[in-house]
Design brief:
The complex is a heterodimer.
Chain A: H1 6-11, H2 21-34, H3 36-72, E1 78-82, H4 93-99, E2 104-110, E3 114-118, E4 127-134, E5 143-146, E6 154-158, H5 159-164, E7 172-175, E8 180-187, E9 199-202, E10 212-217, H6 223-233, E11 243-246, H7 248-290, H8 292-300, H9 305-339, H10 345-371, H11 375-379
Parallel strand pairs in A: 4-9, 6-8
Antiparallel strand pairs in A: 1-10, 1-11, 2-4, 2-10, 3-4, 3-7, 5-8, 6-9, 7-8
Helix pairs in contact in A: 2-9, 3-7, 3-9, 3-10, 7-10, 9-10
Chain B: E1 4-13, E2 16-26, E3 31-35, H1 42-49, E4 57-62, E5 65-66, H2 72-82, E6 83-86, H3 98-109, H4 113-126, H5 142-154, E7 160-164, H6 172-187, E8 191-195, H7 199-204, E9 207-210
Helix pairs in contact in B: 3-4, 3-5, 5-6
Classes of the chains: A alpha+beta, B alpha/beta.
């Protein structure tokens, strides 16, 4: 038989050095694959922690999102510029200027009201307020019948106004005595812009002054700041008589609800993650106890303490990532099925990352214990 | 060539002194046996010389440099890059293939995997267990397992080879194979130290340290 290592020993072909990081990662992956019970148990524990966090805190976060979204629908974001005494003379150009502000979703203005009656049924139908509109009607006031007014003299009626004027198929002529408009559609505006349902809104050739300008902010949190910027933008004959208002009470309620639900979610999540940390720690501890001879042998053949720590942590990370993926997908699906609302994506991703990190923190003490064990004591026990 | 020596070496487990004030010098080029009755401290001395135990007193020297008390990281690096270790039972990882077991020390010595793999396959071939490379340790015999363990200890081409009762669990045929590999490796210029109670092997060794 040839001397197995003579040539290499003499030439010094191997290069003494430290472990290569790629090789260490590869070894950890192979170890994770070679020990499916340990890897699987850690992955299952991580998946369960992830799942429980999402089913508890995630469900609360989904509820918070739904409640806040409901509050935010329009009500908290709506800002009203008004002329309560009719003496401010708000310039119609204000609408375009306000609509151009950053953070404004839409803006439209309404001129003074007049009594409109059906031209086809004078005296036999009711009365509805007619108001000239400046700017585009918002998507919340989409036509449920007919279409939106495009040209001067065209109008839409709110559902209540159309009923009062007894407009057949939502179309017909309406007059206030001096102006005749053709109703081309009916709009149903829903709760937050419900005041439009009683009006006939028409395009006029010119509108001398506006009574109100309605502005919707992109985000409820920007409303106070936007309120100040709108007040500075409004053009009016008597600016001091202009009022710029938002639903301050609803805004406070929104912040209070979001804060209370957020705090509750955080406490719940911290509790579950804390429990998960203990569970992962116990799982990894039992795993390294079962691998004493394996880790002792590695120390004897040259693994440093840090190499043992890295090995245990990498194996935990591999199992943790697998578990977090399964747990977060399952958790999001379960919450969506149970509540109809999925937890926010950032929240779910954050939970997955936090679970993996918690797993690593939990694995650190057992990893250190394994690294600082005396290899000789392990190797001498049969 | 690495010379291994101990100077006034003392080793204790708690209050129990196992080795006291020993001076030894192990030269390369031949197999040196550490022998003596049970409890004489053969394995303990071997572990200390292999930098697995920190001396209670005295010093371990490799190439004249004191290394027994250097930090753990340095001792690990020396073990990985310059020494190999053969245990009494093969101590193979049952979850990994024979080839992966042989490759294990090369990871910690920083040897590129491709180079280590080539060397591992050569060693397995030379020791007659290449056909078992993809098997798990549970699928090979005791003698084959110890040859695999020998391959593992040689995969980094260490300058010093420490063996703790490497033939203790083997029959005569397997013992002969292992011993001949150790002798050949020593003749290549390496230091080979074998702790054994086998009087036959002690008689064949090039140098002997007798503990009492």
């Amino acid at each position: 038989m040839n001397p197995p290592a003579r040539a290499s020993a003499e030439s010094g072909r191997t290069v003494p050095g430290r472990p290569r990081s790629g090789a260490v990662v590869g070894d950890a992956l192979r170890s994770a694959a070679a020990q499916p019970v340990v890897t699987g148990t850690t992955a299952v524990v991580t998946a369960l922690v992830c799942l429980v966090v999402l089913l508890t805190a995630g469900r609360a976060a989904a509820a918070e999102r739904a409640v806040v979204a409901s509050i935010d629908a329009v009500g908290t974001r709506l800002i009203t510029v008004s002329d309560p005494q009719g003496q401010a003379a708000i310039d119609p150009e204000t609408v375009d200027q306000v609509a151009a502000l950053e953070g404004v979703r839409w803006a439209f203005g309404l001129g003074p009201a007049s009594d409109g009656r059906s031209v086809a049924l004078p005296g036999r139908a009711g009365v509805a307020a007619m108001r000239p509109v400046v700017g585009d009607l918002p998507s919340e006031a989409a036509a449920v019948r007919g279409r939106a007014p495009r040209a001067v003299g065209e109008a839409v009626a709110g559902t209540d106004a159309a009923a009062a004027l007894r407009l057949v198929d939502g179309a017909g002529a309406v007059s206030d005595g001096s102006t005749v408009v053709g109703v081309v559609g009916v709009v149903d505006t829903g709760e937050d812009l419900g005041f439009l349902d009683a009006l006939v809104l028409y395009r006029a050739a010119s509108v001398p002054t506006l009574s109100q300008v309605y502005v919707l902010a992109d985000d409820a949190s920007t409303v106070p700041e936007l309120q100040r910027r709108i007040a500075a933008t409004v053009r009016a004959g008597e600016p001091s008589r202009v009022q710029v208002e938002a639903s301050a009470g609803v805004l406070r309620l929104r912040d209070a609800v979001a804060g209370a639900l957020g705090a509750s979610s955080r406490q719940l999540m911290l509790g579950v993650l804390g429990g998960g940390l203990v569970l992962v720690s116990v799982t990894v501890l039992s795993a390294v106890q079962g691998r004493r001879r394996d880790l002792g042998r590695r120390r004897a053949v040259g693994a440093s303490r840090s190499a043992i720590v890295v090995l245990v942590l990498l194996q935990t990370a591999v199992a943790g990532v697998m578990g977090a993926l399964v747990g977060s997908v399952g958790g999001v699906a379960a919450v969506a099925l149970a509540t109809g609302v999925a937890p926010p994506g950032s929240f779910s991703a954050g939970v997955a990352v936090a679970t993996v990190l918690i797993g690593l923190v939990g694995a650190a003490p057992p990893a250190l214990l394994a690294a600082y064990r005396d290899p000789v004591r392990i190797l001498r026990v049969p | 060539m690495t010379r291994v020596a101990a100077r006034g070496l003392g080793l204790s487990y708690g209050a129990v002194t196992v080795v006291s004030a020993i001076d030894v010098a192990l030269e390369p080029g031949c197999v040196t046996t550490l022998s003596g009755p049970s409890g004489a401290g053969k394995s303990t001395l071997l572990y200390a010389l292999a930098l697995l135990l920190r001396p209670t007193s005295g010093e371990v020297l490799w190439d004249g440099r004191p290394v027994g008390r250097v930090p753990d990281g340095v001792r690990s690096q020396l073990r990985a890059s310059r020494s190999g270790f053969v245990f009494q039972d093969a101590m193979l990882d049952p979850t990994r293939s024979v080839l992966d077991n042989v490759l294990e020390p090369s990871l910690y010595a920083g040897v590129p995997r491709r180079e280590a793999r080539r060397r591992a396959l050569d060693l397995l071939d030379e020791l007659g267990v290449a056909h078992r490379a993809r098997h798990r340790p549970g699928e090979v015999s005791g003698g084959q397992a110890q040859r695999v363990a020998l391959c593992r200890s040689l995969v980094t081409s260490p300058r010093v080879l420490f063996c703790d009762e490497p033939t203790g669990n083997l029959d005569a045929g397997a013992t002969e194979i292992v011993w001949s590999v150790l002798e050949e490796y020593a003749r290549g210029g390496s230091t080979v130290v074998v702790a054994t109670h086998d009087r036959g092997l002690v008689a064949r060794a090039g140098a002997r340290v007798e503990l009492t």
